[in-house]
Specification:
This protein is of the alpha/beta class. It folds into 3 domains: about 180 residues, Molybdenum Cofactor Biosythetic Enzyme, Chain A (3-Layer(aba) Sandwich), CATH 3.40.980; about 80 residues, Alpha-Beta Plaits (2-Layer Sandwich), CATH 3.30.70; about 150 residues, Maf protein. The strands form 4 sheets. A 6-stranded mixed β-sheet has the order 2-1-3-8-7-6, sandwiched between helices. A 5-stranded mixed β-sheet has the order 14-13-15-16-17, with helices on both faces. A hairpin with a 2-residue loop joins strand 16 and strand 17. Helix 2 packs parallel to helix 7. It starts with a strand and ends with a helix.
Length: about 425
């Protein structure tokens, strides 16, 4: 089954909001075996919506829209699509009761504009939306033309997509085509290896992937390797993806730390938990990013005890017992200082694992000997402290985020080897 996606919103065209709905739709529809042939973004103007949907119907016979179903004057998707089908909008009493009940539940009064959200193109199927006031709409005519309208609010769109739309689309596709085929992906996450070096390392595996494709997706966290199986039976796709992902992880060893959306901070916390260790952090240039990464993982409190943001040298000496002589002789951004920070934090908090980061995040503060992007990282496990220097490129926040990721990677290696 072929389908086009139309995302609606002037804010998307102006760059005032990210089009996360398009990303989610592409992933989910491909996994269900739906061939998304085109993606279009248009403003909130009815003529633009009608033109985009009309073109999609002419090319593929099916369109899925997001946005323009709200209660305000710029929410005109229903009107535009209903006009293409020659259908009037009629009040749906069931939808109206749902909206009224939702307002009562939250102790608010429903406005007349919200009543518009209960108007549905005649003959359309209502897709109930328990997360909001605007229902999804499934509109199909005798010629087989199909338009699916979903709210633009991401959490509402995703809920309707999974619960209402995908089951209907798969059933429709099977009725048309028989045996299902899918487009599925599987991602292996790596860190600490540049994209070019990674490509050389796994070249032999990439050459032997057969019907699968491999994409390199670099980011601040590292390089994700996305394997994709195209238009094949679900069982075959899952088998080939599993085999290829396992081969990549064996080849990459410690540089591969998980799959899909695995967070390196969560991996580190699990390793600490399994070994019965607790962790503290001492941060300078990262300014709390390490602590934020760790505490964003639910349940981290049983492993992570806290830390110190030692931005000023006086805090490094006063809170972490970094010798003043070390700072004067080697500077705040040095191996000697970062080792002393990690060891001081471990003593201060009475734990056996610690991470420390100190560096020059820029845009100023660098020198020929220590340019912007110079970062020292230390990881302490038991009585052993290992330190490394990294030279990061990018803007200030990029350098800081890369430093936090590199620190987590260093501690992970220490824990894995132990």
């Amino acid at each position: 089954m072929k389908l086009e996606v139309v995302t609606i919103g002037t804010e998307l065209l102006l760059g005032a909001a990210l089009d996360t709905n398009a990303l989610d739709l592409g992933t989910a529809l491909a996994a269900a075996g739906i061939d998304v042939t085109r993606r279009t973004t248009v403003s909130d103007k009815p003529a633009a919506v009608a033109d985009a949907v009309r073109g999609a119907l002419e090319r593929t016979g099916a369109a899925l829209t997001t946005g323009g179903l709200g209660p305000t004057r710029d929410d005109l998707t229903k009107q535009a699509v209903a006009g293409l089908f020659g259908r009037p909008l009629v009040l749906d009493e069931g939808v109206l009761r749902h909206i009224e009940e939702r307002f009562r539940r939250f102790g608010r009064k429903m406005t007349p504009s919200n009543r518009v959200q209960a108007e549905i193109p005649q003959g359309a199927v209502v897709l109930p939306n328990p997360r909001g006031t605007a229902p999804g709409i499934w509109l199909e005519d005798d010629a087989g033309r199909l338009v699916i309208m979903l709210p633009g609010v991401p959490v509402e769109m995703r809920g309707l997509l999974v619960e209402q739309v995908l089951p209907r689309l798969v059933t429709r596709a099977l009725a048309q085509d028989g045996a299902p085929v899918v487009v599925r992906s599987r991602t292996v996450r790596t860190t600490g290896v540049p994209e070019s070096a990674l490509a050389e390392r796994i070249a032999a595996i990439e050459d032997a992937l057969g019907p699968l494709t491999l994409a390199y997706l670099p980011s601040i966290a590292g390089v994700d390797l996305r394997l994709t199986a195209w238009e094949m039976p679900p069982d075959q796709a899952d088998r080939l993806l599993g085999e290829a992902a396992a081969r990549l992880q064996r080849e990459l060893g410690d540089r591969a730390y998980g799959e899909e959306s695995t967070d390196l901070a969560g991996v580190v916390l699990d390793l600490l938990r399994k070994s019965g260790r607790k962790l503290t952090v001492a941060e300078s240039c990262t300014g709390g990013m390490l602590g934020a990464r760790l505490t964003s993982i639910p349940g981290s409190s049983d492993v992570f005890v806290g830390g110190v943001i030692a931005y000023a040298d006086d805090v490094k000496t006063g809170m972490l017992d970094v010798p003043r002589a070390t700072l004067e002789q080697h500077g705040a951004v040095s191996e000697q200082t970062v080792r002393a920070m990690a060891e001081g934090a471990a003593r201060r908090f009475g734990v056996d694992c610690a991470l420390a980061v100190t560096g020059i995040a820029g845009p100023g503060g660098g020198s020929p000997e220590k340019p912007v992007g110079t970062v020292w990282i230390a990881a302490r496990r038991g009585s052993e402290t290992r330190a490394l220097q990294r030279q990061f490129l990018g803007e200030r926040d990029e350098i800081r985020a890369r430093s936090a990721q590199a620190a987590l990677a260093l501690l992970r290696l220490a824990l894995v080897e132990a």
